[in-house]
């Protein structure tokens, strides 16, 4: 399958209000007023945004078992650039063109902001794990990539009832009544009211992937 070629529009937008960018049962992404956004396109179709500004990520990455609860709620302040593929129609209702004063408040000129956005998009496009998930964009899915300050990206992916969250410490998958949590210490599976907890050292190592 040919990979999509993502490019940026040569424009900067700003959010007119604080709003919930994305929400499902176990996760949400909220953004502040005056968040800046650079649209991502494939050919002439807008497919997502790179965001620069303040927001918050929430993920309920907890698996309930007979042995107790494993995992933790993720509450993360978003201050580094992050991107989203999908959900563009709803998001576009909250943005308008950024003015010169908006850019001054961001303490950067338009070229600097576009360069930062391009840097994140390049990092995202170069990750082979993400390419395995690209079909989600074409099936009402949503993909987020978050800078984590370590020259790497964390991911949040949803498609239908399935949610996947990966960061450097853990991988969490939820789909209907099935949940899987994998950390450096344990792998926890809950399905149809039954649960299993296994020490990760007893399992072959698989790098965390987007899917």
Notable traits:
alpha+beta; 17 strands; 4-stranded antiparallel beta sheet; 4 helices; 211 residues
Describe the protein.
With 211 residues, the protein is of the alpha+beta class. The chain has one domain. Helix content is 15%, strand content 49%. The protein is built from four helices and 17 strands. The strands form two sheets. Strands 1, 2, 5, 6, 9, 10, 11, 12, 13, 14, 15, 16 and 17 form a 13-stranded antiparallel beta sheet that branches. A four-stranded antiparallel beta sheet has the order 3-4-7-8, with no helix packed on it. A hairpin with a 2-residue loop joins β3 and β4. The relative contact order is 0.17. The C terminus is likely disordered.
Write the layout of secondary structure elements.
Elements: E1 6-8, E2 13-15, E3 19-24, E4 27-31, E5 36-42, E6 45-52, E7 55-65, E8 68-78, E9 82-85, H1 88-92, E10 95-97, H2 100-105, H3 110-126, H4 128-131, E11 142-147, E12 153-159, E13 162-166, E14 170-175, E15 178-183, E16 186-191, E17 194-199
Describe, in short, the structure shown:
By secondary structure, this protein is an alpha+beta fold. It has helices at about 90, 100-105, 110-125, 130, and strands at about 5-10, 15, 20-25, 25-30, 35-40, 45-50, 55-65, 70-80, 80-85, 95, 140-145, 155-160, 160-165, 170-175, 180-185, 185-190, 195-200. Strands 1, 2, 5, 6, 9, 10, 11, 12, 13, 14, 15, 16 and 17 form a 13-stranded antiparallel beta sheet that branches. A four-stranded antiparallel beta sheet has the order 3-4-7-8, with no helix packed on it.
């Amino acid at each position: 399958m040919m990979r999509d070629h993502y490019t940026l529009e040569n424009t900067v937008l700003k959010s007119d209000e604080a709003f919930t960018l994305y929400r499902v049962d176990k996760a949400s992404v909220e953004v502040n007023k005056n968040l800046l956004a650079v649209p991502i396109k494939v050919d002439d179709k807008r497919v997502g945004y790179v965001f620069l500004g303040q927001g918050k990520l929430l993920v309920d990455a907890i698996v309930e078992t007979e042995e107790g609860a494993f995992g933790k709620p993720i509450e993360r302040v978003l201050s580094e650039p992050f991107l989203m593929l999908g959900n563009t129609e709803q998001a576009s209702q909250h943005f308008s063109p950024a003015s010169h004063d908006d850019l001054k408040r961001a303490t950067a000129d338009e070229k600097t902001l576009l360069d930062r956005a391009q840097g994140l998009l390049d990092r995202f496009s170069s990750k082979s794990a993400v390419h395995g998930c690209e079909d989600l964009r074409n099936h009402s899915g949503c993909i987020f990539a978050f800078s984590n300050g370590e020259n790497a990206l964390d991911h949040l992916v949803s498609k239908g009832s399935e949610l996947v969250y990966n960061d450097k410490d853990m991988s969490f998958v939820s789909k209907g009544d099935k949940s899987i949590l994998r950390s450096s210490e344990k792998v926890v599976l809950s399905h149809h009211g039954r649960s299993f907890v296994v020490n990760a050292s007893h399992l072959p190592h698989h790098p965390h992937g987007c899917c």
